[in-house]
Amino acid sequence: MNRTNPIGFFDSGVGGLTVVKSFMQFMPNENIVYFGDTARVPYGSKSNETVIEYTLQAANFLLRKNIKLLVVACNTASSVALNDLRKFLTIPVIGMIEPGAKYALSESKNKRIGVIGTRATINNKAYSNELKKQNPKVKVFEKACPLFVPLAEEGWIDHKATELIAKEYLTELKENKIDSLILGCTHYPILANVIQKAVGKSVKLIDSGTPAARLVEDYLNGRGLRNQSVHHGVAEFYVSDVPTKFKEIAEKFLGKKLTHIHKVELEELTNE
Amino acid sequence: MNRTNPIGFFDSGVGGLTVVKSFMQFMPNENIVYFGDTARVPYGSKSNETVIEYTLQAANFLLRKNIKLLVVACNTASSVALNDLRKFLTIPVIGMIEPGAKYALSESKNKRIGVIGTRATINNKAYSNELKKQNPKVKVFEKACPLFVPLAEEGWIDHKATELIAKEYLTELKENKIDSLILGCTHYPILANVIQKAVGKSVKLIDSGTPAARLVEDYLNGRGLRNQSVHHGVAEFYVSDVPTKFKEIAEKFLGKKLTHIHKVELEELTNE
């Protein structure tokens, strides 16, 4: 494996770009390849079987780009498919759950931690199991918030309706006196203000993006795989639907113009 | 073609069941085969290219079940892919747009008609073009309502947040003095109460399901293809994701237990 090989990022759609953004700040000289499965998004309401199938197809596609490490920048896919990916891939695979859980435990004082995510992430108890594995005494309070993704994608980030929905979803977590809340879906940082308002200022919001980026750095350093270039890396983006909408959202998320965006035909994913 | 052959219904997910329900009331003795693309739902936020590709795959699958007529029980697919389907299929294809537009024009007195639907349906101006084709003097006011599908699927049918969102989406239509409003997405009848409240009692809500079922009946009668059986028809359901959630929602929609629900592997759809 070559140090200059790119790092692969995978998400069901655009949400993983919040992770890429953290990552680019830490390691601007790495090359990256991102695949967003925009033709089949969202994953959060689909079955485990389907999420695993799609995730393996995406990993296969990125392997053909000679990635040196895979970041599953999607909480649903991390919750459901990480074990299958690790069985199948020989390169390191970093999900959102382990670094997010570790960071939450380091930030929490009362060890009462809230987790919000898609229905699939919450039903699979991925964060809950990981938190308890890392600290058996932790109390975890979970809540699926399926309307947050469409609200974030609509850009209704400070609408009264979003506030009401956040209140409905989050009041119980607040009553359970959590002191940290894991934003267990890569879309949720977009709604951070309204979520903070609903749970109260004293609750620390935990975004897995930054600790995941730190973990990637540790992995690469530990294996002597950091890119030594002094130049900015190249970022290539692949999506399964036509890239018009993706380009627009991605440029907003990352704050710069993107030129390397390509469409992947579904046949390239399914005909292995 | 045999009279006892089934009628095919296609939708991106569960929404088309509201059409099947209308249909079963009119023609309980027909056999039906339903395909819901639950592994790739929703279509309303995807590109035309992808919607056309998925719709042709679904039609191909249903053709292998020897359907005598295809109902595209999905407004997005009807808006985007009907011409391609009609080029490709030799059996009659009924979409939601023509019967919905015709019914709206027959109900409207002031010929100021509102249309709501997914982003794809509204961007394609499918209802607008059809209404103007049928009556060039009609005034059409359109609005995409992307949050209505997730709200309907969440079952938030009388939540204060749903009322606020409906008000935000629909106030402009109300101000434009429409007297009828086409519910241009098969999920929207589920939110009929809150939509009615937002536009006011005087506005007639137009659901394409019933006029589409009537049009199917006319087509079959005209071609001597009505099933003559005095027994209830058999209804078979196929979905692309595992059927657990579909079964639950479908039984709620149709008000009866369903036994014939099968999963279709994606390879069956994509490998033509």
Automatic annotation (TrEMBL), chains A, B:
Keywords: Cell shape, Cell wall biogenesis/degradation, Isomerase, Peptidoglycan synthesis. The active site is at 74 (proton donor/acceptor), 185 (proton donor/acceptor). Substrate binds at residues 11-12, 43-44, 75-76, 186-187. GO terms for biological process: cell wall organization; peptidoglycan biosynthetic process; regulation of cell shape. Pathway: Cell wall biogenesis; peptidoglycan biosynthesis. InterPro entries: Asp/Glu/hydantoin_racemase (IPR015942), Asp/Glu_race (IPR001920), Asp/Glu_racemase_AS_1 (IPR018187), Asp/Glu_racemase_AS_2 (IPR033134), Glu_race (IPR004391). Pfam families: Asp_Glu_race. It catalyses: L-glutamate = D-glutamate. Its EC number is 5.1.1.3. GO terms for molecular function: glutamate racemase activity. Belongs to the aspartate/glutamate racemases family. HAMAP family: Glu_racemase. Provides the (R)-glutamate required for cell wall biosynthesis. This is Glutamate racemase. It comes from Stygiobacter electus. The lineage of its organism: Bacteria, Pseudomonadati, Ignavibacteriota, Ignavibacteria, Ignavibacteriales.
